[in-house]
Every structure is written in structure tokens, then in C-alpha cells.
């Protein structure tokens, strides 16, 4: 049988795939120049969108990042290569704006095109693959997340991207963006907190009562099967009736449209993961631990607080992670019923056929969801008991 050549042993298969995809992306339009924010515009490749010097520097940086990504067994070097490639990519797209807008007209807009997004996705996947092969611990992941977010903040504050259409959309809606951010956070994190307050006690009760569990879990599972748009629609007449019947409810802001129906819908979607993971976490507690606690004379409440819940915490936190990431995405739909959040920009952009306005709502949502997922994964890892061999 023929053995693979020595060259194949030093090449990372995912890195090879990313390199091929990255090279293919160079043949796609890198940016578009449009006469205004609504028309489609003309797609331009890298060498047509920027000057030759910047084009050469950015292209070499991207190619270097892809080449370094080919190395096998060098996770930190590959991670650094992805950063080099991303730096070159943002240098190119930032320079594209100022280069193409020179003399293009007052209402001209420059936007990233398919080539940019493909290269960004490839380099981001290369970074994720490098980190996953290294399997960094929780605190190292937290540090890397902080560095990446700090780098993104510096990039945004530097003004390098200020000539792009999405940055111009943000500049004209700065106050509205701040309001949308606070409302999106309130919807996602507020519904998570409410679901935890309701779901934890209900999950504990379901764990201790099979009869209650046989009724509660199927009911919450049925709520999960209702499409999100239908759920938001169902909340509108119910809360409109509540607001019309109870002046006190109307006084605190409950109405048929707006924040209240969106919040309630997200709360109902959140209950199943919280309750089911609480039940699963408590069921995973080793019987010997319960017996030892009972033998020490602990009461039922003491066993629950000091033994069962700490051991079940990783599974419970995994349920909260599911809820948080789910609600960050579903909160976008709240924009359809006046609930605010980033969905306001998404649906405004759809109505106006303005792609960059859609991105103004979509990109922060994706960033918030990824950040929340990483932070919750870190909490789950920190909550796991450390094996005795590791302590030793």
C-alpha cells in the first residue's frame, strides 16, 4: 500500500480547504460602488477597488495568512496567520471606501461584496479551527475573546471603515442604534432572567414529581413547536385584551404591540430548555452523593442547595446558554411588532431594499450571539468539577 508523501503530513486538511476557498474568493467582486444606498451598484475586484500599493500589501497579507493556515500541528502560528489575513482584509476594505468615493458623487455608497464576505468567513473559520485544535482553557478563551473584541473596537474607532455604507448608516442612526441595542439586550437577557426565575423552581418540582413532569414537559415542548411569527401574533390580541381590561396593566406598559408581547413570547420559548436541563442536571447527580449527604444528616433543602444543584450546575448552565443564544436571534423578529431591538433596522432595510441597513441590524446580532455563546461555554467549563487526578 502506498503511503502518503511527506508533504501531506505537514499540511492541515482544513487549512488546505480554506486556502482553496480563499483563492477562489479573489475571483469574486470584492466591493460594490453604487450611485445611492438603494441601487445594486457595480461589483469591483480588489485591484480595481484600491490603488496598486494597498492592493498588493493587503493581498500578500491574506495570502500569507492562508499559507500559514496550511501548516499542521502549529495552532498558535495558524491563529496568528488568520489575524494577519484579517488585518490585510480590513486594510483593503477600509481603503476601498475612500478610494472609490473620491469624485463619485454626494450620494455614492461603497459596500463589501461577495469576495470580502467569503474571505472574512474563510479567515474566521481558519481562526476557529486553529483554536479548536489547541483546545484552550476557560481563562485563556476569555482572554482571547477580550483581545478580539478590543481589536474590533479599535478598528471601529479608528475610522478606517467610516467610508463604507454600513458605517454611514450607523452615523445617521447613532441614537436609534443605542436605543435598539438597549432594547435588544433587555429582550434577550430579561427573558432569560424571567425564564430562570420560573424555570428553576418548576424544573426542581418536575424532578421530584414524575406526575408534574409528565404534564409540564410535553406542554412546554408544544410551545416550542409554534413558529416564532405565529407566537408573536398570538401574543398581540391576548395582551391587547389584558391592556383594555386592566388599567393597571396598561399603566405599566403592557399593550398589544411593542415590548410586552415580544418579551412574553421569548419567555415562553425559554422555559423548555431551562426546565428540561434542570431536570436532566438533577437526574445526573450520582446516587452516592445523595446518600452521603443523607448520611451526614442533611435536610432535603440542604442536600438540594449544597450537593445536588452544584453538581447539576454545568447541565443547567448549558440550558441557559441555549436560551440566551436562541433569544438573541429571536429578538430580531420583535421588530415586526414594534418591540424594538436590532430587528428594527433589519425590517426597515428590507422595506427600503437597503442591504447595508439590514447588515446594521444583523451584524451586531451575530456578534452578540457569538460573544454570549463563548461566555456561557466558559461558565459551563468553570462549573464542571475538577477531577481529583487534575488537582493532584
TrEMBL record:
Residues that span the membrane, as ranges = 7-30, 50-71, 83-101, 107-128, 140-160, 185-205, 226-246, 252-283, 304-324, 330-350, 357-380
Q: Does the keyword Cytoplasm apply?
A: no
Q: Which residues form the ABC transmembrane type-1 domain?
A: 181-376
Write down the SUPFAM superfamilies for this protein, in alphabetical order: MetI-like
- How does the UniProt record describe the way this protein sits in the membrane? Multi-pass membrane protein
Which terms are listed as keywords in the entry? Membrane, Transmembrane, Transmembrane helix, Transport
- Indicate where this protein resides in the cell: Cell membrane
Entries under Pfam families matching the protein: BPD_transp_1
Gene3D superfamilies recorded? MetI-like (1.10.3720.10)
Keyword Transport part of the UniProt annotation: yes
Q: Which family does it belong to?
A: Belongs to the binding-protein-dependent transport system permease family.
Matching entries from PANTHER family are given as: GLYCINE BETAINE UPTAKE SYSTEM PERMEASE PROTEIN YEHY, GLYCINE BETAINE/L-PROLINE TRANSPORT SYSTEM PERMEASE PROTEIN PROW
Protein name, please? Answer: ABC transporter permease
Amino acid at each position: 500500500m502506498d503511503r502518503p508523501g511527506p508533504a501531506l503530513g505537514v499540511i492541515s486538511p482544513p487549512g488546505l480547504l480554506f486556502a482553496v476557498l480563499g483563492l477562489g474568493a479573489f475571483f469574486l467582486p470584492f466591493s460594490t460602488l453604487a450611485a445611492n444606498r438603494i441601487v445594486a451598484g457595480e461589483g469591483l475586484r480588489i485591484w480595481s477597488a484600491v490603488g496598486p500599493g494597498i492592493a498588493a500589501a493587503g493581498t500578500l497579507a491574506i495570502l500569507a495568512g492562508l499559507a500559514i493556515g496550511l501548516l499542521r500541528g502549529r495552532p498558535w502560528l495558524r491563529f496568528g496567520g488568520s489575524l494577519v489575513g484579517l488585518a490585510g482584509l480590513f486594510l483593503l476594505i477600509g481603503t476601498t471606501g475612500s478610494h472609490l468615493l473620491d469624485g463619485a458623487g454626494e450620494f455614492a455608497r461603497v459596500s463589501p461584496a461577495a469576495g470580502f464576505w467569503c474571505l472574512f468567513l474563510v479567515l474566521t473559520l481558519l481562526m476557529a479551527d486553529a483554536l479548536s485544535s489547541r483546545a484552550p482553557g476557560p481563562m485563556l478563551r476569555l482572554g482571547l475573546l477580550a483581545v478580539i473584541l478590543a481589536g474590533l473596537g479599535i478598528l471601529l474607532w479608528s475610522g478606517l471603515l467610516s467610508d463604507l455604507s454600513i458605517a454611514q448608516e450607523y452615523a445617521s442612526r447613532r441614537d436609534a442604534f443605542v436605543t435598539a441595542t438597549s432594547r435588544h439586550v433587555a429582550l434577550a437577557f430579561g427573558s432569560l432572567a424571567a425564564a430562570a426565575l420560573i424555570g428553576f423552581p418548576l424544573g426542581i418540582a418536575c424532578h421530584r414529581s414524575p406526575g408534574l413532569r409528565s404534564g409540564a414537559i410535553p406542554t412546554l415542548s408544544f410551545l416550542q413547536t409554534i413558529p416564532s411569527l405565529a407566537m408573536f401574533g398570538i401574543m398581540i390580541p391576548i395582551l391587547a385584551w389584558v391592556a383594555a381590561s386592566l388599567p393597571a396593566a396598561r399603566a405599566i406598559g403592557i399593550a398589544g404591540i411593542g415590548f410586552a408581547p415580544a418579551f412574553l413570547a421569548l419567555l415562553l420559548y425559554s422555559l423548555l430548555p431551562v426546565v428540561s436541563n434542570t431536570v436532566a442536571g438533577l437526574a445526573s447527580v450520582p446516587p452516592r452523593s445523595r446518600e452521603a449527604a443523607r448520611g451526614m444528616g442533611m435536610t432535603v433543602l440542604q442536600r438540594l442547595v449544597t450537593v445536588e444543584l452544584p453538581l447539576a450546575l454545568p447541565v443547567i448552565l448549558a440550558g441557559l446558554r441555549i436560551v440566551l443564544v436562541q433569544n438573541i436571534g429571536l429578538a430580531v423578529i420583535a421588530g415586526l411588532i414594534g418591540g424594538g431591538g436590532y430587528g428594527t433596522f433589519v425590517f426597515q432595510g428590507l422595506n427600503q431594499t437597503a442591504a447595508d441597513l439590514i447588515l446594521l441590524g444583523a451584524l451586531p446580532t451575530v456578534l452578540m450571539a457569538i460573544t454570549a455563546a463563548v461566555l456561557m461555554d466558559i461558565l459551563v467549563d468553570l462549573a464542571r468539577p475538577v477531577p481529583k487526578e487534575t488537582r493532584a
